[in-house]
Design goal:
- This protein has about 300 residues and is an alpha/beta fold.
- It has one domain: Spore Coat Polysaccharide Biosynthesis Protein SpsA, Chain A, CATH 3.90.550.
- The chain is about 25% helix and about 25% strand.
- Strands 1, 2, 3, 4, 6, 7, 8, 9, 10, 11 and 12 form an 11-stranded mixed beta sheet that branches. It has a two-stranded antiparallel sheet with strand order 5-13.
- A hairpin with a 2-residue loop joins strand 8 and strand 9.
- The longest helix has 15 residues.
- It is globular.
- About 40% of the residues are buried.
- About 0% of the residues have low confidence.
């Protein structure tokens, strides 16, 4: 059974100033998503599932349906704030989506095979998909075993603002022991770090392994995410801006010994469109990859 690629594309791009998921950055009008899907197909993936929001659904399908027809099976799911378990209600004033773990959860009824998770607006490199595909082969363990592709922090920073990254710690067998979601990482005068909740500046080593939301899961992850989401809803009923992040459930699974997460290292250069100022660098980077024959000038024919 071929694995599925689950693309988290429900964000509205408030920092970017537009629908960055469909922004044309390739020489023939391709978006970053196009390159991710192209790499996944080459690696052996058989289906792509898009998690989108209702506001962009029509435009999104109009863009991607024609180009992907005959290339790979496609499906769509909507992430909405009212997509929550029975017995729970949306707090008054809640406007934000529930976060990345919830984005995975909304796809539970249409994914029954191993799957990888990526962000729509991040370029991860060709080897990320090959590495994940290889991981799915012959994984036998006493407890569920998943994986993530880890990147070096210094390869994932934008020069135009703060970013969110999962700071990872591993054991001597490269299994994840802890992941801390940091939401305000930036480079200041050449030094990478972030301010904690007490406004203290915490410096980070550029070689630190971070999560960029490239995860490899089996379908049994859905039951864990749903259990954790119910707990999250109970604890955050009055916090209308709280989000249920993937690292939250991963950390809980590790601490309770219910799953193991293998960290698959990548030295590839990440790039993405967090801010509008990132776009020229992304366009230039794609052009270099095309020139070096990593990709054809026109992806879909």
């Amino acid at each position: 059974m071929k694995p599925t690629l689950l693309i988290l594309a429900a964000g509205l791009g408030s920092r970017y100033g537009g629908v960055k998921q469909m922004d044309k950055v390739g020489p023939s009008g391709e978006s970053i998503i196009d390159y991710s899907i192209y790499d996944a197909i080459r690696a052996g993936f058989g289906k792509v599932v898009f998690v989108i929001n209702k506001a962009i659904e029509a435009d999104f399908k109009e863009v991607f349906e024609p180009k992907l027809k005959g290339q790979i099976q496609t499906e769509y799911v909507i992430q909405s704030i009212d997509n929550i378990p029975s017995g729970y209600s949306v707090p008054e004033g809640r406007l934000k989506p529930w976060g990345t773990a919830h984005a995975i959860l909304v796809a539970k009824d249409i994914i029954n095979e191993p799957f990888a998770v990526i962000n729509a607006d991040d370029y991860y490199g060709v080897d990320s998909y090959k590495t994940v595909f290889e991981f799915f082969k012959n994984r036998e363990s006493e407890i569920p075993e998943y994986s993530m592709v880890g990147f070096q922090l210094e390869n994932t920073i934008t020069d135009f603002g703060t970013v969110s990254r999962g700071i990872c710690k591993t054991d001597n067998e490269n299994y994840l022991t802890d992941v801390l979601e940091c939401t305000n990482i930036q480079r200041v005068n050449g030094i990478i770090g972030y301010h904690d909740n007490d406004s203290n500046w915490i410096e980070l080593d550029g070689k630190t392994t971070v999560s960029m939301n490239v995860w490899a899961f089996k379908p049994d992850i859905f039951k864990f995410i749903e259990e954790g989401f119910k707990k999250f809803l109970s604890e955050n009923v009055k916090n209308i801006k709280a989000e249920y992040y993937i690292p939250t459930i991963i950390t809980d699974l590790i601490q309770t010994n219910r799953a193991k997460i293998k960290v698959l290292e990548s030295t590839d250069q990440w790039f993405g469109v967090t801010y509008q100022q990132d776009r020229p660098f992304v366009v230039e980077s794609i052009a270099k990859l095309v020139k070096s024959k990593v990709y054809p000038e026109k992806l879909w024919t």
